């Protein structure tokens, strides 16, 4: 058996090193209030496969990352992260922070682990969690929030962070460099605007499928009062229910607020077309995940059939290659990146650049556990130093579980306030980890005891 302990690492490496890769299975019982419920996922327990990179630098800085799941299987995701530990222990901190692409290339390129993908599924999400933890550490060591760390970075360096294999027919390194150099023009002014106004958001909080019509109406009215100009409703379980709920939502928000709808992959192509058309009287802004995230041609057919309703997808898209094909085939109007689904910041940079090359707006998926905290940085970088605009761009917001983070998102007047703390906003409070670690955290221990008492 290969020795992966620190004693096996060559001692000639100088400077601080990665000394521990700690993982945690964190689960929250959101299914009990039906928070997060939709047509495909009726009872999610929002969860995080969480990783902490620790060093011997003596500065107290750590790299935090995670990927999002919805309960059962989170232990499988944690195991996948654990499988990456040998690639990390003993590596020089300065080297990784100077070039996070090193660890991205090493993890994606492990030929035996790659067989489990390649570049998709549980293994790829594990890589994303670790890569994001490296970026968190790098931004902390630079004393900048990640959005600013990326926006201040040299364009040539950013291009070097991207794996162009499989996408160069749509985006070459030269094209990417041109986009990034152009994006630097006026970046300082946009950064000032971002700090003053924030980045536009929209909220899904009123729209969970398990909520009553009364709760939907109350939360939709509150969203408008809070300054949001777009809300989103989950659809796809029952058409009559969807018609009733859309009618209630439109009455609550009035004619000028956008209402997006989200089927969470529930339909085939024909059903997606028919169901979306049946809801057009309520002026839906986009239909999200109308079918399988892998069905590129299906998305294209749906888009042609339901226009002017826009088609949006991306939260379950596995990698930059699928995003490339969605753009090449004209299959989407709105691209939805996810901070924890693909291989971390490096791959999301590639996807943002692809979207900029094709002129398609990016409206990230968020919510879950910490996804709002992460993805805000990517959109803010895009505004400041790439696309240069927030027109038709919004970040999803869900008002759940932010209290468990050291640097939670701040919403002001329907906008994400720009993070100021160094890092990727990924740090979870130690007491939350201790409480919701599965199955031996204090909440789950007490919950199991209560269940046993009822059974007895």
TrEMBL record:
Pfam families: MR_MLE_C (PF13378), MR_MLE_N (PF02746). Keywords: Lyase, Magnesium, Metal-binding. Signal peptide: none annotated. Its EC number is 4.2.1.68. Its cofactor is Mg(2+). GO terms for molecular function: L-fuconate dehydratase activity; magnesium ion binding. It catalyses: L-fuconate = 2-dehydro-3-deoxy-L-fuconate + H2O. GO terms for biological process: amino acid catabolic process; carbohydrate catabolic process. SMART domains: MR_MLE. Residues 213-309 form the Mandelate racemase/muconate lactonizing enzyme C-terminal domain. InterPro entries: Enolase-like_C_sf, Enolase-like_N, Enolase_C-like, L-fuconate_dehydratase, Mandel_Rmase/mucon_lact_enz_CS, Mandelate_racemase_C, Mandelate_racemase_N_dom, RHMD-like. This is L-fuconate dehydratase.
